[in-house]
Amino acid sequence: MTDRRLWPHPQPVIVDDRHQIRATQRYLHRLGMLHRTNTPCRRLLIRPTPGGGDEVTLVLDVLAALGKNPEGLRRDKIGGTGWELARAWLTATDITDLLIDRANTLPTDRIADPIASADELGMWLWLIWSGDEHLSPTMKLIVDAGHPDHVIRPQDLFDVLPLPPPAQPDHREPWPALPAADFTTFHAACRRHLSPRAFARADELYRAAIGRVHTWMAERDPRLYDWLALPSPPLSDISTDLIGWLRDTHLGPTAEAGRSAHRVTRHPGRAVPARHPAALDPGHPRPCPRRPAARRPHPGPGPRPDHAGPHRSRSGHRAVPTSETCRP
């Protein structure tokens, strides 16, 4: 019987691969290819560490199959909570089938742990038996757990556990070196530095990401999404929702207050752009504009006279530099 739809519920199944036929290798190779290409698949392949017959090592093998770092987990000394941790991670996935390669290399009491965990999670457990070790002790474990002792051939794996085709990348050619720019300037940097063909690929990915962000924002806060869609969004409409500001250090520092139009901060009762610091704080010193300096002809070798000291205006008074401030 190879149609598992006829079986009443998820249960442990032994795959008799004692002759190690090529069908098993092909199936496991395809399953591994799905994991390497990040193709959504509801089968998890567990490869036990050779010689690791203890409980912690098998748990680490399960967590490594889930993509967790086994060395970090080993340093955490998970001990007796290992299977509890593994079940928690498995519960958070959509995995329905656990496959243990070369399950014959595990001690019998170790096989009891994945049987109990799969039973608790309602998952299928496929024990690939690729050695001459006796099946009787393992079959007794399965029967004692309340399941029939099903054994299938490796040739039946493709029918019983069909696999999806591997995901194909959208672009087979490698990606160009993308500019290391922030999200707000990434698109413009790509247009400036990439070739037209490379920019078209980056632009397609960029616009797809923007579309997903807009969808997420529209579902999470439609009012904020509608506000951002306006040609010139009024800041007063979101004064109660504004929780931070864009600093000019993010947009490019400038010493001229008139160029800090994008810096925004909270103001009592309203949000205003920092076009002028006095608009935010009347006691804040405001920058004075630079007065025109007198230009004198350069007499000859040596430093320019107007570089030797402060600029002077036509009236002969010392001009106030931009970095200095004056009170209103």
Helices and strands, with pairings:
Layout (H helix, E strand, L loop, with lengths): L11 E5 L5 H15 L6 E4 L8 H11 L4 H6 L6 H10 L5 E4 L7 H14 L2 E6 L6 H9 L5 E3 L4 H4 L22 H11 L2 H25 L1 H7 L19 H4 L12 E4 L2 E4 L3 H4 L5 E2 L37 E2 L2
Parallel strand pairs: 1-4, 1-5, 2-3, 3-4
Antiparallel strand pairs: 6-7, 8-9
Helix pairs in contact: 2-4, 5-6, 8-9, 9-10
Strands of the widest sheet, in order across it, are 2-3-4-1-5
**How much strand content do the residues show?**
5-15%
Domain module count: 2
Under the CATH scheme, the architecture of the largest domain is 3-Layer(aba) Sandwich
Which class best fits the helix and strand makeup? Answer: alpha/beta
Identify the CATH class of the largest domain: Alpha Beta
Number of strands: 9
Oligomer: single chain
User: What order do the helices and strands follow?
Assistant: EHEHHHEHEHEHHHHHEEHEE
Mean pLDDT: 73
CATH overall fold name of the largest domain = Rossmann fold
Biggest pleated-sheet summary: 5 strands, parallel
User: How does the overall form come out from the CA principal axes?
Assistant: elongated
Low-pLDDT sequence parts:
239-296, 305-328
Radius of gyration: 34 Å
Helix coverage percent: 25-40%
* Spatial gap, N to C terminus: 91 Å
- In CATH terms, the superfamily of the largest domain is P-loop containing nucleotide triphosphate hydrolases
Number of helices: 12
